[in-house]
Write a structure and sequence with these properties.
alpha/beta; YbaK protein; globular
Length: 158
């Protein structure tokens, strides 16, 4: 692996002794969707997990990770995070909160360790794909390792 591909998230996984693969893909700046990433990787959209940053009315910022084809149920997200309501954080705030940009937001290695919730469908796969912290680079990682590295709670989000 070249030094260029060592993101903060990769260094964090290395420090925890967590195995992962790094898979690069061509970024289409006009379409940063999980569907476009899955197509570029040649993978099933439901194995490519997206990272969403939200703000709850009681607990503040938290993170949800779910399959690329799924829509987040905001009521479920609010409930599991201890909030009455939750909303997506505006794109302009993501970099300042997480250290990552839209399309490259990883649930591992954010500026702060926010409460993180991963959709229960993650257990259906031996390996999943999730952003490695920059556009054009994904981790291929075992679900249980992602849960451990991110300190996430596995629950229903869709």
């Amino acid at each position: 692996m070249s030094a260029i591909s060592k993101t903060n998230a990769a260094r964090l996984l290395d420090s925890q002794g967590i195995a992962y693969g790094l898979v690069s893909y061509r970024v289409d700046e006009s379409d940063l969707s999980a569907r476009a990433v899955a197509a570029a990787l040649g993978q099933d959209i439901d194995r490519v997990f997206k990272t969403l940053v939200l703000r709850g009315d009681r607990t503040g910022v938290f993170v949800c990770v779910l399959p690329g084809s799924a829509a987040l149920d905001l009521k479920k997200a609010a409930g599991v995070s201890g909030n009455k309501s939750a909303a997506m954080v505006p794109v302009r705030e993501i970099l300042g909160l997480t250290g990552y940009i839209r399309g490259g937001c990883s649930p591992v290695g954010m500026k702060r360790r926010y409460p993180t919730y991963i959709d229960e469908s993650i257990v259906l796969y031996d390996q999943i794909f999730v952003s490695a912290g920059i556009r054009g680079l994904q981790f291929m990682i075992a679900p249980e390792d992602l849960v451990r590295a991110s300190g996430a709670h596995v629950c229903s989000l869709t």
